[in-house]
């Protein structure tokens, strides 16, 4: 039995509540106080994983290296590894395409090849999941992966802003397909008409020439 309850309004002692009651009324000031649910009635909330664990990512990288060793292309190897090791974390193909885009974009900007670097791929995958969660709640995020790799000129960092549109574009297909689609769209655009410069008008000679 619960004892020594105090009114939140006047601090007077509250009467003993009846079993199962959710509220009790103060006999001094007439205020109503809400009672906490008993511990037995509180249901634990399920823990929803926000992303893969380090063990999941290790299995993913091992499967990725195995797929590369079997001759699969980069994006295809990412897909195979994601299906094997990350089946419980959303759309595996979308994640694989997103990581492939991040890797290709990073190689273009830094000049360092990372497609066969398991540690880099693991960090890109972890960063992709975090970015997807943050974009889902806020619409955009800053993906910041310092010291992602290094070459003779020094360490290389990845820092870029990602929006919902960016994630949708990157997860829709491998980088080669996205580049081909973009090139096709540019080719389908009608050419802009070129305007010829107007010929210069010749000045008429006057009496003073």
Describe this structure in words.
The chain has 209 residues and is of the alpha+beta class. It has two domains: 7-36, no CATH class; 54-184, Actin, Chain A, domain 4, CATH 3.90.640. The chain is 43% helix and 13% strand. It has six helices and four strands. The strands form two sheets. It has a two-stranded antiparallel sheet with strand order 1-2. Helix 1 packs across helix 4 (118-138). The longest helix has 21 residues, at 118-138.
**N-to-C series of helices and strands:** EEHHHHEEHH
- The low-confidence parts are 39-49
- Given the structure, what is the number of helices? 6
| Strand arrangement, major sheet | 1-2
The figure for the number of domains is 2
CATH superfamily membership of the largest domain, which one? ATPase, substrate binding domain, subdomain 4
What is the overall shape? elongated
Mean pLDDT: 79
- Structural class label: alpha+beta
Please tally the β strands and state the result. Answer: 4
User: What would you say the CATH architecture of the largest domain is?
Assistant: Alpha-Beta Complex
Text of the CATH class of the largest domain:
Alpha Beta
Q: Give the helix proportion (percent range).
A: 40-55%
What are the main properties of this structure?
Actin, Chain A, domain 4; 43% helix; 2 domains; two-stranded antiparallel ribbon; 209 residues; alpha+beta; two-stranded antiparallel sheet; 4 strands; 6 helices; single chain; 13% strand
């Amino acid at each position: 039995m619960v004892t020594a309850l105090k009114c939140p309004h006047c601090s007077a002692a509250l009467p003993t509540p009846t079993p199962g009651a959710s509220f009790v009324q103060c006999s001094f000031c007439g205020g109503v106080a809400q009672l906490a649910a008993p511990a037995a009635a509180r249901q634990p909330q399920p823990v929803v994983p926000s992303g893969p664990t380090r063990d999941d990512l290790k299995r993913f990288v091992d499967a990725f290296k195995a797929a590369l060793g079997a001759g699969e292309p980069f994006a295809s190897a990412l897909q195979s590894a994601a299906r094997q090791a990350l089946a419980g974390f959303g759309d595996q193909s979308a994640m694989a395409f997103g990581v492939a885009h991040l890797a290709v974009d990073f190689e273009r900007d830094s000049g360092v090849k990372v497609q066969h670097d398991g540690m880099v791929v693991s960090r890109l995958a972890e960063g992709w999941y975090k970015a997807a969660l943050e974009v889902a709640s806020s619409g955009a995020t800053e993906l910041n992966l310092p010291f992602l790799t290094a070459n003779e000129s020094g360490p290389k960092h990845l820092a870029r802003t990602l929006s919902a549109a960016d994630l949708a574009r990157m997860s829709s297909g491998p980088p080669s397909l996205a580049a081909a689609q973009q090139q096709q769209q540019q080719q389908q655009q009608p050419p802009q008409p070129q305007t010829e410069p107007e010929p210069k008008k010749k000045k008429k000679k006057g009496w003073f020439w």
